[in-house]
Design brief:
Layout lengths: L20 H5 L5 E5 L5 H9 L4 E6 L2 H14 L4 E5 L2 H8 L5 E7 L17 H10 E11 L2 H10 L7 E3 L10 H8 L5 E7 L1
Parallel strand pairs: 1-2, 1-4, 2-3, 4-5
Antiparallel strand pairs: 5-7, 6-7
The structure holds S-adenosylmethionine.
Amino acid sequence: MSPSLLITLDDESDRDPTLDLAALFGNDHPIEIELGFGKGRYLLDAAQRRSDHNFVGVEVAGKYLRLTLDRARRRGVSNIRFVHGDAREFVEFFVPGESIRALHVYFADPWPKTKHHKRRLLEAEFFEEALRILEPAGRMWIATDHDEYYEAILEALKPSADGFNLVEAIWDGVTTNYEDKFVRRGSAIHRRVLQKR
Ligand SMILES: C[S@@+](CC[C@H](N)C(=O)[O-])C[C@H]1O[C@@H](n2cnc3c(N)ncnc32)[C@H](O)[C@@H]1O
């Protein structure tokens, strides 16, 4: 029987919630995570092209999760596991230290109103968490179309500046749904690739 692609997180019991990622996939291939994958275009394409890597996709919106999970099943993709939940909580409580080869966050909600900025994912504490879960030399890939959020991201990166090198990496993924939408509107896309020292 094929394994379930949907991970059910144990956040109720007193046991250590940290996931055993190798057991989850049945192998110890490098792990990549995408947070807020939306309609899953990047995630599905990356998992199919890098079949020797394992992928975990985290999405809070049930309709996007179901859509992408269904596409993965129909395409027979077996190297993705899906989490229906909050990205920040997943990273903080369930991901072991130094276990992730690549962390992808594309077009995270910018929450433009000042009173909502605290909901933004890419803030200083999250970058500290990213440093915790990345393997040495692991990479974090970020894109946003939102100029003000991009400036705030650069500011939020300052406290963890010693932990990351900025790298020039060639983008070899497909565009995401939101990226296409923003490019059609004429927005400039900001990208950052950070490599853990
Ligand atoms: C602007 S969309 C971008 C989707 C996709 N990355 C793309 O580029 O097409 C932001 C996505 O993040 C998801 N999201 C927002 N907050 C989240 C959270 N706290 N945890 C997980 N996913 C979240 C939304 O449901 C949505 O699918």
